[in-house]
Amino acid sequence: MILLLVVFGVSGSKQTATDLFSPLEQLYQYIDRYFYWPERIEDRTLLYGAMKGLVKQLDDPYSEFLDPGDHERWEESLEGEFSGVGIEITIKDTVLTVIAPLMGTPAEQAGVQIGDQILAIDGDSTDGITLTEASLKIRGEVGTTVVLLLRHRDGSEEEVSIVRDTITVEAVATELLADERILYIRISRFDSDVTHELDQILLVGDLETSDGIILDLRSNPGGLLNAAIDVSRRFVDDGAIVITKGRVAGEQTYPALGNRIPNLPLVVLINGGTASAAEIAAGAIRDHEMGILIGECTFGKGVIQRMIEFSDGSALKLTTGEYVTPLGHVVQGVGLVPDIALAEAEDPIEAAIAWIDAHIGERMPISLGEKDHR
Q1: Backbone phi, psi, residue 76, to 5°
Q2: Which of 78, 80, 82, 85 could pair covalently with 162 via S-S, beta carbons 3.0-4.6 A apart?
Q3: Domains of the chain by range and CATH?
Q4: pTM of full prediction above 0.70
Q5: How far is it, in rounded angstroms, from Cα 144 to Cα 115?
């Protein structure tokens, strides 16, 4: 599940107009008094059903009420290891859509692609399904099979059977490329540990002897807002990292704090699965000309959700704002366009190495031209 997220607890809320919601109370009273099968009446279940319906009427694919069980399973999915098939999903244009299959997972091996629409899960239509409902249907015990009916971006449809497995998400991976001259860093998600793991790579190695850095954000579905800001601060010297806009908080600018690494030639790899927090990092680096974007247009998720946790274990995931890049470029529904767009057959790593080789000895910011990269 994709989230650019801020979490906070709630102990109380403003009293809602009693007369407006009194019909809901009356509805419950009629059910409780007259429904023919009283054994089917479970007060808590009725309450959660009403709350889910209330949020669903917002017609926002990113806002959702989670009962305690759904909330617990959602939190488990953030821990880096869970049972499933390894895909990140969203609702796009009212259709359940794959943001990206995670690398090395059963979904990727089965041929699930970025941008695939999931029309059915185990024969059941996904029309009107929520993200949590879809996630729970796709996930399951290791060794069991789930069948997905997919519509690929070329319009063709395919039914694929995927055997569930234990999915382990490694937030940060690294290696040295091009005769160990170039540091390659892949960030797969922006979780609470990503900044610490990134610092272990950036501050331990001898970057002064390196020719450049490749930051791979392909198929990164995002994560936590603070993690995206902290990662961006490792590569941006000064200025804004991101600008957020909300009804309550208004407009807020999150500044850079001065990075501590040499400003080597930097390539950020992006594709259609680069979303949310990953787009914040890519946008901040590009707007300050601290790195060049190579690959494909990003996903375009520029809204922010807050997770409001209630005392009974349930939670409300609610869209409360949006963000723009430091230069004011809108991301929602638009995405970021690469400076160097690659054809499907081109190798992004080779393209990144070639660009760095053409700028050996230079330091960012390197002028990347006036192209509007929104």
Answers
A1: -60, -35
A2: 85
A3: 81-168 (2.30.42.10), 172-303+322-357 (3.90.226.10)
A4: yes
A5: 25
Lookup: tokens for 150: 């997919």
Closest by alpha carbon to 356, among 254, 246, 269, 247? 269
Active-site residue set: 276, 287, 301
How many angstroms separate the first and last alpha carbons of the chain? 25
Tokens of residue 246, six digits: 């909300």
Distance, in Å, from the CA atom of 167 to the CA atom of 85, rounded to the nearest integer, reads: 7
**How does 175-197 read in b/e, with b if 16+ C-beta sit within 10 Å?**
eebbeeebbbbbbbbbbeebbeb
Rounded to 5 degrees, what are φ and ψ at 232? -60, -35
281's tokens: 């990092």
| Alpha-carbon distances of 358 from 174, 210, 258, 268, 336, rounded to whole Å | 22, 14, 26, 16, 24
Distance from C-alpha of 213 to C-alpha of 199, rounded to nearest angstrom: 14
Each residue of 118-154: pLDDT tens digit?
Answer: 999 999 999 988 888 898 889 888 999 999 999 998 9
Give residue for tokens 């540091």: 183
How many alpha carbons lie under 13 Å from residue 306 in its C-beta half-sphere? 14
Q: What is the DSSP string of 183-241?
A: EEEEE--B-TTHHHHHHHHHTTS-GGG-SEEEEE-TT---EEHHHHHHHHHTT--SSEE
Residue 255 token pair: 């500044």
Q: Are 136 and 70 in contact (CB under 8 A)?
A: yes
121 has which bridge partners? 124, 148
Q: Which two tokens stand for residue 41?
A: 């009446």
| Peptide bond just before 68 cis, omega within 30 deg | no
Q: What is the Cα–Cα distance from 277 to 291, expressed in whole angstroms?
A: 17
Match 């501050």 to its residue by tokens. 203
pLDDT digits (tens, 9 = 90+) for 261-274: 899 999 999 999 89
Question: Facing residues of 31 across strands?
Answer: none
From residue 14, alpha-carbon distances to 11, 100, 280, 318 in Å are 11, 39, 33, 16
* Residue in the structure block whose two tokens are 């390197």: 366
